[in-house]
Structures are given as C-alpha cells and as structure tokens.
C-alpha cells in the first residue's frame, strides 16, 4: 500500500511538472507573440501628414468644387502612395507651422516652402522648384520699378519669404528698399492681400513668383509684375530637424517622378494657374 501511495505521489508530481512546463512554454509563446507584435508596431507604415496653407495657389488652395487641391498636395499624395505611406493633408495656420511640426501634429511642411534662411530650423529635401520674390501692382499704377515704391504701402503675408527678404539687412536682403516704403504691412493670406490691392488700400503686394503668376492668370487685366525681382530662391519640403531619412526618401521619390514624367504631367495640370515645368530643378 505504501508503495502504491509513493507511486501515486510521484505520478502527481510528474503531472504537476508537466503542467508547469506547459505553462512556461505557453508563457514563452505569449512573450514571443507580444515581442513580434511590438516589432510589427514599430515597423508600421509611415504616416505623411502634410501641413499647408489653403490660400496659397497653385501649391495649395480651395478649388472651385470646394475641395483642397494644389500642385504640392498632388506631389505629396503621389510620394506617399509610392512609398506605401498613409497620407493626410491639414490646412494650418501658417504662423503655427513650427509648433505643429515639433509636436508631431504634422510631419512635413509642403506648400511652396522656401528653404533659404531656414536651413537651421528644419531638415529639408533637396530643392525641387525655382522661385523668386516679386512685386505686383495694379495695371495703370505709377509704380514701374522698385525705386518707385518709395513712399508707397506694400503688403505681404505674415512669416513669408517676401517678408524675410524685406526685413533682412544682410547680404541678399532688401531692408534698404523697405526703409523707403510709407509702410510695410502683413496679412494672414495672399488672397486678402490682393483684395486690398484691388481696392486701393495698398499700392503693391510682395509675394512669391508663383503667387504673382496665379493672380495675374486669374485676373489678366488687373495686375502687372515689376520686371526686377526682390530675390531668387528655392522650394523644398521641410520636415522635423534631424529626420534625414524622411527627407531623403521624399527626394528620391520626387526624382523618380521626374524621370517617369509624372512631374511634367502635374505641372501641365496647373499651367492655367501660372505654374511652369521650366522651373522644376530636381532631376
């Protein structure tokens, strides 16, 4: 009887060890599954969230159908699709773009974004578009040259490249010219700036070449651009400082899109807004 009891106890002990071993194996499997899930999570698809100004045609604006459209938005959507990234575009307060980028609300600023003078604040893709800062006046104005702006009221967008040029007294800046103005005003968006020009509230608008081309194409009898530019510069995609991987991948994909003709097709799509393929420089 004692032998049987001993045998039974041994059997129960062996069974307990088996159960414990199975539990340990199950725990290890669960741990592996959890680790695998974590690995998958860390490798999940990049989400490209583009911050843009929806009053900045032809790069980003509200179309006649009430939907957001624009050359840069089309470029961004195509880049995201080719890389298998989720894509989202967010119309933003342009003055808040830095805060939004740094807190991760957006992952790229892609909207006719001038890189010169901002290199220390962002990591940029390679520049893709040539641009200039120019002056636009009403047709029939007595302003025919930059010198004629003396004593005049000039308006530009807040935190714009044109404002940077007109406030900069270092090499390439035109603070000397702005000092001759009666006043240099700023406004939230260029559409309203041109409304003020049309109404006669201001004498001139300082803006990007693309904005000038768009406004003159839309209102051919209303405006004229001065021949002399304030400055020349380049557009690039700005991402958070240090994110070279994202910037480089955007650059590589844009080059691919140039090679297969996609860029030229998109330029033609926006030709009526004053955009030209001749200004594309990323090849």
Structural description of this entry:
There is one protein chain. The chain is an alpha/beta fold and 283 residues long. Helix content is 41%, strand content 20%. The protein has helices spanning 2-42, 71-83, 97-102, 161-167, 175-178, 190-199, 209-218, 244-259, 262-269; strands spanning 47-52, 55-56, 60-62, 68-69, 86-91, 108-109, 123-124, 129-138, 153-157, 183-187, 204-208, 223-225, 231-235, 238-239. The strands form four sheets. Strands 8, 9, 10, 11, 12 and 13 form a six-stranded mixed beta sheet that branches. Strands 5-1-6 form a three-stranded parallel beta sheet. Helix 2 packs across helix 8. The N and C termini lie far apart (92 Å).
List the helices and strands and how they pair.
Layout: H1 2-42, E1 47-52, E2 55-56, E3 60-62, E4 68-69, H2 71-83, E5 86-91, H3 97-102, E6 108-109, E7 123-124, E8 129-138, E9 153-157, H4 161-167, H5 175-178, E10 183-187, H6 190-199, E11 204-208, H7 209-218, E12 223-225, E13 231-235, E14 238-239, H8 244-259, H9 262-269
Parallel strand pairs: 1-5, 1-6, 9-10, 9-11
Antiparallel strand pairs: 2-3, 3-4, 7-14, 8-11, 8-12, 8-13
Helix pairs in contact: 2-8
């Amino acid at each position: 009887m004692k032998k049987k009891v001993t045998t039974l106890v041994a059997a129960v002990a062996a069974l307990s060890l088996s159960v414990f071993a199975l539990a340990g194996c199950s725990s290890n499997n669960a741990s592996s599954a959890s680790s695998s899930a974590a690995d998958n999570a860390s490798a999940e698809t990049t989400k490209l969230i583009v911050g843009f100004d929806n009053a900045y045609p032809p790069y980003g604006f509200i179309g006649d159908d009430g939907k957001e459209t624009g050359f840069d938005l089309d470029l961004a959507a195509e880049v995201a699709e080719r890389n298998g990234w989720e894509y989202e575009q967010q119309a933003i307060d342009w003055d808040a773009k830095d805060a939004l980028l740094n807190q991760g609300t957006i992952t790229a600023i892609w909207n006719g974004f001038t890189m010169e003078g901002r290199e220390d604040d962002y990591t940029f893709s390679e520049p893709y578009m040539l641009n200039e800062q120019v002056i636009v006046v009403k047709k029939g104005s007595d302003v025919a040259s930059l010198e004629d702006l003396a004593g005049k009221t000039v308006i530009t967008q807040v935190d714009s490249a044109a404002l940077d040029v007109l406030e900069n007294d270092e090499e390439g800046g035109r603070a000397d010219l702005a000092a001759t103005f009666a006043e240099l005003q700023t406004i939230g968006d260029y559409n309203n700036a041109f409304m003020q020009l049309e109404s006669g509230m201001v004498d001139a608008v300082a803006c990007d070449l693309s904005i000038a081309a768009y406004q003159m194409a839309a209102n051919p009898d209303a405006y004229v651009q001065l021949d002399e530019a304030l400055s020349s510069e380049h557009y690039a995609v700005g991402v958070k400082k240090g994110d070279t991987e994202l910037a480089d991948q955007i650059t590589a994909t844009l080059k691919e899109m140039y090679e297969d003709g996609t860029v030229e097709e998109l330029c033609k799509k926006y030709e009526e807004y004053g955009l030209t393929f001749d200004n594309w420089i990323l090849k």
